């Protein structure tokens, strides 16, 4: 019961933070461009709590926590023949509209960077060392004589400082012989290792057959923490973009997509590890939310930016009919992805197999 309550509360907190900062980006950009913001809502549906600020904006927390919105004056009225009301979104310049829309995803990326910076400055970063904790029997590592406890110093002359870097090198070289420099019981030895291969989502990658669990805390000075946070944000974002590319072009990873239920399950596991893990999880999800919203699918922020780009190229807004078709397509795609991810989540939880067994 306690674990369930903790998962629900943490899930609501994580989503609330992500949505708040995303919408805050839109809000601050709109105010900076002189656009009146009528409503700032975290969640949808009836308001649980609401108040009106001196600026006139109604701030509220609503019943359904799966998202939020900023309602600007004149939003959704790009082709209104009447002169736009001063301070309305419809009356803003095309550049201002693009800035306001892009500010939400950018706020999520900035949030991740700030959270990583704060974590690295205060508690440091957990780094898995390039040390073999286990070596799988009958694996390429075992065939080459590698042992548990070996520390990898370099591979083909490239210095290796983390287990993640070792994984990257191995995955990029399937069926290749490489020279490993190892530290074994205080002695440096050179060992040639012929990597194997495995197929992941239709792509062949290198395989060594080892696991690493020896970790340490890497501490940073404030400037080093900021630099490391930038690298971490870039690395996680690049991985996310690579995943989106493989999904769109090669249709790889559809079965691994997670939806609200899957995120809730992981949130419960992260919550059990403590507040530091929760903060790291928020940063990771914030990068994902920001980049996904920049995908040029109508209904997402990236879709609106696509419309504005078309308007800038052709010198006039797209016809209302074309925009309506685009938004309907985007909505249908998002709904389809929701059902797909929910099916994936239920499958991982065993619910789909249970239902199939129930009905024979």
Automatic annotation (TrEMBL):
Record EC number: 3.4.24.-
Membrane in keyword set: yes
PANTHER family listed in its UniProt record: MEMBRANE METALLOPROTEASE ARASP2, CHLOROPLASTIC-RELATED, REGULATOR OF SIGMA-E PROTEASE RSEP
Cell compartments where the protein resides: Membrane
InterPro entries: PDZ (IPR001478), PDZ_6 (IPR041489), PDZ_sf (IPR036034), Pept_M50_Zn (IPR004387), Peptidase_M50 (IPR008915)
Top-tier EC class: hydrolase
Taxonomic source organism: Acidocella aquatica
Molecular functions per Gene Ontology: metallopeptidase activity
Family the entry assigns: Belongs to the peptidase M50B family.
Protein name according to UniProt: Zinc metalloprotease
Predominant cellular place of this UniProt entry's protein: membrane
Domain of life assignment: Bacteria
Cofactor: Zn(2+)
